[in-house]
């Protein structure tokens, strides 16, 4: 069953320079208990997509629907949406330092978060906070309860954020580039932790990353976004094993995560389109090595036997696996 069902989502953001067409008719659903990944370069619209669903993009004009447990988050009253945030859906961001208050202890901040949403005694909240810190493997959690954010490493702070994210037992955890600021080894540890917590708590995870290799380690299914559009969506193994879309293949070749020594990293030449005036035809056409005349017309989504959906005119997709490099074993 779908926990989150997004249908024909459009997000326009009026700015001084004109309207930014950040999300253009994107549909996807996240099943209960699933680890769903959204991947794309910066500026692809993936962060705006989740933030607009959560009512966090000031001035955004949205249409479509985002059903969460039967309620449309796009039309929910601000107060009701605040109740959903934190309690039913929690968010973990890239930079824990900006999410944690530097002048309060880690423990105090977790306790406050719990007590802002639940009527529990300070002592009970503290016990739960220590239990959570222990669960995310902060060593000596009882003593570290009184530590300040700057006394933790980047990886430890991200563990704290995961503990906070779990503190209210949310149904959905949204993680936006949670490991991007960390080195590769710590990234892998945090990803494994997220995966374990998902299994243990039964939470559903929606994770955003610019790195397909990172998502390949944890995600059951992935959606590839570019220029505000959905280009490919399917099971991780299918999308990574034989990417059908030229952009997905390019993302794989450019992922540095867990890359075998000696395998070169090949960035995608060029830059994503401006979302102020996105192209009329295929959004990837000016960077695509396979572009054809017909690509001046926007391709619609095609569905393949393995359930993968792809927006590309190429007939014989999926492309040969030989054109991609192995990235991470999942
Ligand atoms: Fe490339 Fe054309 Fe496919 Fe777009 S539709 S990705 S330009 S082949
Ligand atoms: Mg982002």
Automatic annotation (TrEMBL):
The answer to keyword Nucleotide-binding applying to this record is yes
E.C. code: 3.6.3.-
Q: Which residues form the ABC transporter domain?
A: 4-252
Q: What class of enzyme is it?
A: hydrolase
Organism domain of life:
Bacteria
Which GO MF terms does the UniProt record name?
A: ATP binding; ATP hydrolysis activity
Task: Report the record's Gene Ontology biological process terms.
Answer: peptide transport; transmembrane transport
Keywords for this protein: ATP-binding, Hydrolase, Nucleotide-binding, Transport
Specify whether Transport is a keyword of the entry. Answer: yes
Give the protein family.
Answer: Belongs to the ABC transporter superfamily.
Q: Can you name this protein?
A: Glutathione import ATP-binding protein GsiA
């Amino acid at each position: 069953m779908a926990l989150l069902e997004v249908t024909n989502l459009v997000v326009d953001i009026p700015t001084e320079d004109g309207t930014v067409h950040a999300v253009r008719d994107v549909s996807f659903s996240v099943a209960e208990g699933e680890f769903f990944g959204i991947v794309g370069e910066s500026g692809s619209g993936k962060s705006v997509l989740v933030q607009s669903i959560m009512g966090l993009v000031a001035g955004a004009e949205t249409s479509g629907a985002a059903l969460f447990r039967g309620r449309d988050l796009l039309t929910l009253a601000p107060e009701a949406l605040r109740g959903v945030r934190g309690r039913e859906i929690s968010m973990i961001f890239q930079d824990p330092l900006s999410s944690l208050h530097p002048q309060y202890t880690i423990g105090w901040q977790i306790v406050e978060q719990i007590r802002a949403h639940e009527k529990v005694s300070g002592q009970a909240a503290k016990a739960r906070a220590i239990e959570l810190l222990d669960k995310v493997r902060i060593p000596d959690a009882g003593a570290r309860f009184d530590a300040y954010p700057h006394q933790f490493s980047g990886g430890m702070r991200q563990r704290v954020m995961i503990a906070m994210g779990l503190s209210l037992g949310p149904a959905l955890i949204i993680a936006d580039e949670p490991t991007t600021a960390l080195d590769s080894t710590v990234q892998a540890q945090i990803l494994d932790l997220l995966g374990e917590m998902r299994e243990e708590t039964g939470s559903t995870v929606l994770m955003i990353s610019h790195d397909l290799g990172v998502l390949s380690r944890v995600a059951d299914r992935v959606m590839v976004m570019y220029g505000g559009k959905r280009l490919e969506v399917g099971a991780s193994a299918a999308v990574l094993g034989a990417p059908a879309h030229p952009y997905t293949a390019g993302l794989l070749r450019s992922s540095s995560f867990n890359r075998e020594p000696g395998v070169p990293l090949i960035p995608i030449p060029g830059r994503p389109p401006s979302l102020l005036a996105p192209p009329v035809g295929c959004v990837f056409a000016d960077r695509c090595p396979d572009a054809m005349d017909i690509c001046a017309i926007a391709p619609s989504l095609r569905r393949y036997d393995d359930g993968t959906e792809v927006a590309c005119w190429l007939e014989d997709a999926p492309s040969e696996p030989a054109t991609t490099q192995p990235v991470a074993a999942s």
